[in-house]
Write a structure and sequence with these properties.
Layout lengths: L3 H8 L16 H21 L5 E5 L5 E10 L2 E10 L23 E2 L3 E2 L5 H8 L5 H22 L6 H9 L1
Antiparallel strand pairs: 1-2, 2-3, 4-5
Length: 171
């Protein structure tokens, strides 16, 4: 992690205790409860720091997650859909987050809009599994990825703010 504020923020996300994935029917509900508690804590902490940047919800069994994330650049809010499935080998394997609207716009992305987390995040997850959860995925995976990629995509003209798109369409 680059700066002390990021390190401090992540250290406040609770580590998870239950080592269970969706296949472990008896323990999965407990793991899912811990995931929700960590996500709630992370969102509360972000709101307190005026750094609210995503919403997530899951299907009833907690294996498919969808939501939105946003990035503020030059006082404009860029919003994107996000989605991911919990892998069968979770929590030993991190989920692959997809941002479908950005599919094919950056080299740091796989087909289907899945963001590339192999270089920096995957080794961190491997060292900390099963204690890391979805809140850590958002804080250490998607958040830094957005911070690096979105400004670059905007500067290249590959991502345009919604209001600017409407103005261009009206002309």
């Amino acid at each position: 992690m680059a700066d002390e504020s990021a390190r401090r923020a992540v250290s406040q996300i609770p580590l998870l205790k239950t080592h269970a994935g969706p296949r472990e029917r008896a323990l999965w509900p407990q793991r899912l409860k811990e995931e929700y508690q960590a996500l709630i804590r992370f969102v509360e902490q972000n709101k307190a720091a005026d750094n609210d940047w995503f919403r997530l919800e899951s299907n009833p069994d907690g294996t498919r997650w969808t939501g939105t994330c946003w990035f503020i650049h030059e006082l404009l809010r860029y919003e994107f859909r996000l989605e991911f499935d919990i892998p069968v080998t979770y929590p030993d394997t991190a989920p692959e987050v997809a941002v479908p609207e950005l599919d094919g716009k950056t080299a740091k992305m796989y087909r289907g809009g899945r963001i590339c987390l192999t270089e920096h995040f995957a080794p961190l997850w491997a060292r900390n599994a099963p204690r890391f959860g979805l809140a850590h995925l958002m804080a250490l995976g998607l958040g830094p990825w957005l911070a690096v990629e979105v400004p670059d995509l905007i500067s290249k003209g590959l991502v345009v703010h919604q209001e600017q798109q409407r103005e261009a369409a009206a002309e």
